[in-house]
Amino acid sequence: MQYDTALRGYTSKRIEEIESADILVGIPCYNNEKTIAHVVQMVTHGLHKHYKDRRCVILVADGGSTDDSREAAREFEIKPWQEKVISIYRGPGGKGTALRSVFEAAYRLRVQACAVVDSDLRSITPDWIRYLMEPVLERGYQFVAPVYVRHKYDGTITNNIVYNLTRALYGKRIRQPIGGDFAITRDVAKFYIDQDVWTTEVARFGIDIWMTTNAITQDFRICQSNLGVKIHDAKDPGQHLGPMFRQVVWTVFSLMERYETHWKGIRGSEPLETFGYEGSAEPEPVSVNLEGLIQLFRTGYQQFSSLWREIFCPDCFSRIESCARMKSEAFHLPTDVWVQILYELAATFHSWTVNRDQLVDLVTPLYYARVATFVRQTWEMSSLEAEILVEEQALRFEEQKDELVRIWEEKSREQALKDQAS
Q: Does one domain contain both 180 and 316?
């Protein structure tokens, strides 16, 4: 079903009454009653502290929470001269629709800058607002991605997949391509609104990487802003991140097809200008069940190894096979094998036109194997020391990019021959 707006009638009316604003801060929300008031508090304080001479609107874009999220947001008193709108968005459930409603409001209010912050943040401070807004308002940037001090086991999908692929494919070192807290200009909001993704799977978990990839490929002026420590409702990678892995990977691979001509010629990467917080801190720990991750991989191997044998080249499969025989205390899926797995998987996804969802499901256990390896390698390290390993891994993805292009083209040719034969 197509729909022409994510804003309900009463929200549109409220925006018409406000008429215009300089700044909009959107807060996508779903069942976050424990944290939403704190987030609203930090946003209102930040706007008052840094931008009290500007017209500011806070929009809570709620997905029909069944707890008291909206009531908690409504009851919190904001500073004078600010506006607050609490809205249940229209359209398919998911973060993407919440963001579409924020972008529509930003466009209609003719704002100079629109920031978005997650509703489960416990570490947000009033300064986050300045860190996100300043590059847009003062320095002419159009898309501000976040950088956080995160615990080494928070963000395993980013650290092991999305950062590596975004950097190697598109040549920009965007450290948090699915960060959740960002800022954009009105013209970028308009570009996003006009894209035909809002009724697709992308508009669920894949929306963050979709926005980042489009910001790069459309040549928007991109920078990063360090927000300091990120403490939120972190998830155990073995228990909670399977569905997110599937949706993010599916989106990354779909975008590879769309922007194939863009990324194929890029080699190496460049850092982005980074503003914001300059201190350092050790974030609160995130617990990980290491044995559980290894077990999930072994179970996956028992179920899917015959299919993995078909998907991956013999060398890659034999190295996966040897992992399945390892004892837990020696468990290790090497970085170069992980690069090979993701690159072969991307090329296979491209050559398959059906059953793509099943393909991504099949390989989720391999993600658990890689996370288990990273956990074992970094057990004694601080988060800062673990970051060095993440950077080394990203470099390996860049170094093997020729191999990605080779496999991509080879599998495309094989599929074309099969299609001709049938």
A: no
- Measured CA to CA, the distance from residue 217 to residue 169 in angstroms comes to 11
CB atoms within 10 A of CB 171: 18
Cβ–Cβ < 8 Å for 25, 102: no
Give burial (CB, 10 Å; 0-12/13-18/19+) of 405.
middle
Q: What is the mean pLDDT of residues 97-125?
A: 97
Q: How many CB atoms lie within 10 A of CB 290?
A: 16
Smallest Cα–Cα separation from 365: which of 198, 217, 238, 215? 238
Has residue 54 been placed in a domain?
yes
What CATH number is attached to the domain comprising 106? 3.90.550.10
Find the range with the poorest average confidence among 57-61, 258-262, 379-383.
Answer: 379-383
pTM value is 0.94
Number of structural domains (the chain) is 2
Q: Are residues 20 and 89 located together in one domain of the fold? A: yes
Q: Where are the alpha helices (DSSP H) in 126-229?
A: 127-139, 156-157, 163-170, 186-194, 207-217
Residue-level pLDDT at 273: 98
In a domain, 226, yes or no: yes
Residues 295, 333 within the same domain: yes
